[in-house]
Design a protein that fits this description.
The protein has helices spanning 3-35, 40-64, 67-75, 82-105, 108-114, 118-150, 155-177, 187-211, 230-261, 266-302, 306-333, 335-342, 346-352, 356-378, 383-406, 419-448. It is mainly alpha-helical. The chain folds into 2 domains: 36-228, no CATH class; 239-449, no CATH class. Helix 1 (3-35) runs parallel beside helix 7 (155-177), helix 1 packs antiparallel against helix 10 (266-302) and helix 10 runs antiparallel to helix 11.
Length: 449
């Protein structure tokens, strides 16, 4: 196949994934917007609760991402073994849910570090304990999503995610503000709505797998009960744990960056938050392309078509890089209009404007690293990339950002003092990650060609 055909296949697979990811982000936006109209205390509790829940969920769901290359390779080789692997994935989701639920149920231990007021801690605790009810369903749905993406059928996942988003607004309004005999729950009402929707998504997804003809050949249902097999679990964990760690490293690098910037005052935090939010939304495009590229590469590897796997990886990385440059340029020229859509405050606008220089540049590095990382995972390579992430993002990104932004040694130029120093450190670290991951991918591809 020509490069153009591979690019078209990647784009066709990526757009439903992108829409589904944007629907997930929209859920968080809706929670924030609706709770902010209830009370400042509930909004603070929501922010604190979400920061803890996301850290738990991202790490655990990252482990389940091992299913994507595993099922993808089976789809290209032993089609009939997919059902057995999916069942092992569901067992893994169950075990991970037990760990995650314990962490969320004992959330006061984590909240004590925040030194929050008793009322704030109480509301955040209630939010997290209700979210614990959602976690098993959410992780179970991640297995369904991994199955569909791995067999190049992400549109069903997208449809369920859009349906969930449409339900989110009325259920949020009901549980946050009360009505029809229910009291107003405030911020924790978001968690109630999320839990109900999560279980509905799970049931819908797996009912489709049970009944739709396109899944029948996979033999997920109708092949009898399968107990957890420790060999299969070890295989998934061997790939999934470093993958989960890499997600955790990426999340905590941004979280710790925000904590350090908080020392500089509310204006610096506000400018950083706007920039980070825009960056998160933009990240969904390369993430979707990476997901699609990794899926197609895994299928080619399963079929032992090493040359096609290499061509797909190149096409995906190239497409992601080109689009990121175009988006970076567009964001740079529209930066003031974007920031004003967030806030009319001229002081905050002045704080955020210089940071968009880094948004424009780091898009390229971010797209290269995430697409290459997913291709490496398609080859079932995850340990060395995780080490690269840890050294670069925590060491160069956070360490360099601390030196440049807070200038404890008096060596940083004035224009990098504050949030700009942290963003430069983060951008440089992503550039290093991209460079070393691309280099390591070439080593891996030469060894299997």
């Amino acid at each position: 196949m020509t490069s153009r055909i591979h690019t078209f296949r990647i784009a066709s697979l990526a757009w439903p994934i992108l829409i589904g990811q944007l629907a997930l982000i929209a859920n968080g936006v809706i929670d924030t917007a609706m709770v902010s109209r209830f009370s400042a205390m509930d909004l603070a509790a929501l922010s604190l609760g979400v920061s803890i829940y996301v850290s738990v969920f991202v790490g655990l769901s990252g482990v389940l991402q091992a299913l994507l290359p595993t099922i993808g390779q089976l789809y290209g080789a032993r089609f009939g073994d997919i059902g057995r692997e999916v069942k092992q994935g569901l067992w893994l989701a169950f075990f991970l849910s037990c760990i995650g639920c314990l962490a969320l149920l004992f959330s006061p231990v984590f909240l004590s570090f925040a030194q929050a007021s008793p009322e704030l801690a109480e509301k955040a605790t209630l939010y997290l304990r209700i979210e614990a009810l959602a976690l098993p369903a959410t992780l179970g749905f991640r297995v369904y999503a991994a199955l569909n993406n791995a067999i190049s059928r992400p549109k069903m996942v997208m449809a369920i995610q859009i349906g969930a988003l449409l339900l989110k607004i009325p259920l949020n309004a009901w549980f946050i503000f009360g009505g029809l005999g229910l009291p107003a729950f405030g911020g924790p009402g978001c968690a109630i709505a999320t839990s109900l929707i999560a279980w509905l998504m799970l049931l819908t997804g797996w009912m489709l797998v049970r009944g739709a003809p396109i899944y029948r050949e996979l033999r997920v249902f109708g092949s009898g009960f399968v107990a957890p097999q420790w060999k299969a679990q070890r295989s998934l964990l061997k790939l999934g744990i470093p993958m989960g760690l890499s997600y955790f490293i990426e999340v905590t690098a941004f979280t710790l960056m925000a904590i350090f910037i908080a020392r500089l005052g509310a204006v610096a935090v506000a400018g950083h938050q706007i920039t980070a939010n825009v960056g998160t939304v933009l990240y969904m495009l390369p993430l979707s392309l990476a997901n699609a590229t990794g899926t197609l590469v895994a299928q080619a590897i399963g079929a032992r078509d090493w040359q096609t796997a290499k061509k797909i990886s190149r096409a995906g990385i190239r497409l992601s890089a080109i689009l990121s440059v175009l988006i970076g340029v567009a964001v740079w020229f529209a930066r003031e209009q974007i920031i004003r859509a967030y806030t009319p405050d001229e002081v905050i606008i002045a704080s955020a404007l210089p940071l968009f220089l880094f948004i424009a540049f780091y898009q390229l590095f971010d797209s290269l690293q995430v697409t290459t990382a997913f291709v490496l995972r398609a080859y079932k390579v995850a340990v060395i990339p995780t080490v690269i992430y840890a050294v670069a993002l925590w060491g160069i990104g956070l360490g360099g950002g601390y030196i440049l932004g807070l200038d404890p040694f008096g060596v940083s130029p004035a224009w990098l003092h504050g949030a700009a120093g942290f963003w430069l450190g983060n951008s440089a670290s992503l550039g290093l990650v991209a460079f070393f991951l691309i280099w390591y991918l070439r080593v891996i591809q030469r060894s299997v060609a």
